[in-house]
Amino acid sequence: MGAPMAANLLKAGWDVTAWNRSGAAVEEFVALGGFRTRDVAGLRGEPVIVFMLPDLSCIEEAASGLMDEWRLVPPRPGTIVVVMSSVSPTGVQEFARTVHSASGGNAVVVDAPVSGGTQGAQDGTLAIMAGASEEVFGRLLPLFEAMGTTVRRMGALGAGSLAKACNQLIVGTTTAALAEAAELAERSGMDAAALFEVLAGGLAASRVLEFVGPRLAAKDYAPTGPAKFMHKDL
Q1: How far apart are CA 208 and CA 174, in angstroms?
Q2: Which residues form the 3-hydroxyisobutyrate dehydrogenase-like NAD-binding domain (predicted)?
Q3: Best CATH choice for the domain 2-155 from the list 3.30.70.1660, 1.10.10.10, 3.40.50.720, 3.30.70.270
């Protein structure tokens, strides 16, 4: 997710410096015109630092050197750390307290998780749900609009993560319901593809149905991502 999101920032004219736990993705990013840093601490002077890692523990580990640098030399006032991963509302609030302390109060944290999958990240059509003050959200809006088409401030810090939890609740339960519907239809001798086609024309229509329905009908169970991430989100 992070690589195509960063690529869209480049396309929109942003100067982007990247770090990744594996080097291959950074090489590809540099080939697109981006910059690189050896570690997250190398971003200590940037006005906006965006994290897109699997979970909060990965972010905390990656940011540890950055926090150490800021304890020695605080960043400029108004520095923003954006957590775009799916994390818990209370977890990101605790992380914000760590950032506030380490930065001498000069840096704030915003949670801005996304929905739309890898395709949405590539197309720049993500839904971005942010938890931030109105002033900070306004500063970040041009950056968010380079990566998504539906961008909303949901409330204060933590509200974005709560909105993402609601999103995952709907996506997870809808996916399970579609799987049950496909099984029921096939056991009854009904064509699952025909069922999903007619459902798409009624109140059961959804983006999840558009994506999952054809794959269930074709018995295409190839994974699109680790199940542990959905389990973590829920």
Answers
A1: 7
A2: 158-234
A3: 3.40.50.720
3-state secondary structure of 85: coil
23 three-state secondary structure: helix
Q: Which two tokens stand for residue 82?
A: 């954006």
How far apart CA 200 and CA 185 sit, in angstroms, is 15
Q: What is the largest CA-CA distance in the chain?
A: 69
Q: Where are the domains of the chain?
A: 2-155, 164-233
User: Are 91 and 58 a contacting pair, CB within 8 Å?
Assistant: no
Nearest to 160 by CA among 230, 113, 97, 108: 113
Residues 6+ apart with CB under 8 A from 134: 153
Write out pLDDT tens, residues 113-157. 999 999 999 999 999 999 999 999 999 999 999 999 999 999 999
Distances (CA, A) of 1 to 59, 78, 170: 15, 26, 21
